[in-house]
Amino acid sequence: MKEEDYIKGRGAQQNVPNRFLKHIYETRDDFLEFCRIEGEEADKNKTQYIPIFPKTIVNKVTSPDVGMLYSMNPYQGCEHGCIYCYARNSHEFWGYGAGLDFERKILIKEDAPKLLEAKLKHKNWKAETIVMSGNTDCYQPAEKKFKITRGCLEVFLKYRHPVGMITKNALILRDLDILSELAKDHLVAINVSITSLSEETRRILEPRTATIKRRLDTIKTLSENNIPVNAMLAPIIPGINSHEIMNLAKAVADHGALSFAFTVVRLNGAIGQIFTDWIKKALPDRAEKVLHQIQECHSGTLNDSRFGIRSRGEGKIATQIHDLVRLARRTYFKDKPPFPKLNKELHERYKKGQMKLF
């Protein structure tokens, strides 16, 4: 592969057709040749921010494999570009592709704080932890401009409602003031995702994410401010980061994480094609070995849709991963305090924006 054929700064190296659309967009060779002759760019590789206006923002989660009851996503699509991201397939429901479209066409829900406030004020709503974001990162680069996540945190604080967060971006420290206030009443827990200790691996696997050092420093800063942190060592990809489990666990423990979770990679839907194309370009010498090891974890395929098994994997390689995880927990987390449960008792008193007297 020629170096110029690799799209730097992006995870996906292609746009795959949307399986729900009758017609597909195809870049023809004669158009590419025309652009070459004219000295024009066929693809400017720019990120687009597209406003959308949903009627609701809080989603009920029905999957038994996900440890949350409710989630909300201020953004659809994610500029971080993690090649393995399970959320890529969701972009097809919006009429876009799971490949480059997912990273370059970011849907913006500017009304999210207003919709969230309406949900929390509803007379039938009973406090349950709402997780930002169960799908795409609420602190992806768009947040620096739009500040929708910060607006939502202000709503959670106003109504003293529990919130969980999942991110791999150090931008979360911008909101340390609100997070610290939430933490005083045990209303917030953070999940920081860190997949590798190798910067070279991070750059190709998660091209527009915060560096490893910044993520570890984020865990440390949050922990020092009494904000509970769980590290997400996910996904574990055989042949890419599976050998790092012990070192990853030690690093996050040393920086203050109270616990860690993991999943074994699965390449569902369009992600199988996207990942396969990517690894043959990014890591051609390891491509077949990695793909075969992923297949070994999922009964010979790149994906397994069975609840209870799909995120854990099975077979010899998956067993080795689980053994390492158990060893890492015994070695580095045995003296850690239990991860705290969030407070669901305060919200009812603040439901109308102020405390009830009786």
TrEMBL record:
Pfam family, one: Radical_SAM
Keyword Iron assigned: yes
Keywords in alphabetical order: Iron, Iron-sulfur, Metal-binding
SMART domains reported in the protein's UniProt record: Elp3
A GO term for molecular function: metal ion binding
Chain ranges of the Radical SAM core domain: 61-301
Gene3D superfamilies: 3.80.30.30
PANTHER family cross-referenced by the UniProt entry: SLR0285 PROTEIN
Protein name: PA0069 family radical SAM protein
Species for this entry: Ulvibacterium marinum
